[in-house]
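User: Is it possible to get a 3D structure for a protein together with its bound compound? The compound here is succinic acid. I've pasted both below.
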Amino acid sequence: MQVAAKKIIVLGTGGTIAGTAAQAGDNVGYRAGERPVQALLAGLGGQALPPGLELAAEQVAQIDSKDADFAFWLALHARCAAHLADDAVRGIVITHGTDTLEETAWFLASTLPAGKPVVLTCAMRPATALSPDGPQNLCDALALANDLGAPGVSVVSAGAVYLPQQVQKLHPYCVDAIGSGEGGPAGWMEEGRLRLAHPWPSQGAAAAPWRLPEPGAAWPWVEIVLSHAGSSGAQVDALVRAGVDGLVVAGTGNGTLHQALEPALRRAQQAGVAVRVTSRCAFGRIVGTPAHGLPLAEGLAPVKARIALLLELLQRP
Ligand code: SIN
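Assistant: Yes, that's possible. Here is the predicted structure of the complex:
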């Protein structure tokens, strides 16, 4: 950790935090990813950073995060990796949409070295709202990125700090939409200071370097399938015929599978498709070993299990 490093990098990627509506009171009918990251910082009026630090902003993307894709992940990863390798950089803030925030957080946590803070933040109300939540979230993120005691990827929203494995968007509208379920926050930002709920965990990401595709090169094709009342194997069979590489199954409850889906997943496995089972429950994790015996994605929500499987497939020779 570079204690003497003085630079905080802010990477803008779009989202509601950079969204604008035609009418100030409209918190729903707006376009995400409109305001440049430099304008978001300017809106803080120079109050954002503790004295002695230097701020540099870069617009990596300007998207609604529902449209995030591999090219977006790679571009963001590349800018984070380059800045983290710079001895002058103390920490990174990423402004991001809430909709796929947890996916980007998990992807970055899985693939970046964990020595310096990389803080994602967001907003549920656009920048034009009567009472926007973005500015305070951005202030909190800047303070957290300055905290040498919080290395690795984290998320800050509505005053709380979350870690990548458990963070989730839990509500489509309320300002307090981001959470970690039963895991709770890792801490809280209070007047520019981090108050920890428990000791900051060391993040394992640095087991990397992961092999990532060159920009424009193909990624493995991994889909998520949901086990639900009335499930059949037709979707799985169709995906296998179409050449899918991996399937993550959001199973019921404790990772169980509809009896009509299970044989199709075995056929997929026999055809060489990687299958991982997780639970569609919002909280908790699969306990024990479900009777089907298919491989589990331990402790990961389906969207994060998909990222883990993508990375696993990418490492195969
Ligand atoms: C987005 O995810 O980019 C739009 C929604 C949001 O940021 O809350």
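The first strand starts at residue 7 and ends at 14. The pocket of succinic acid is lined by residues 14-16, 32, 64-66, 97-99, 122, 124 (CB under 6 Å).
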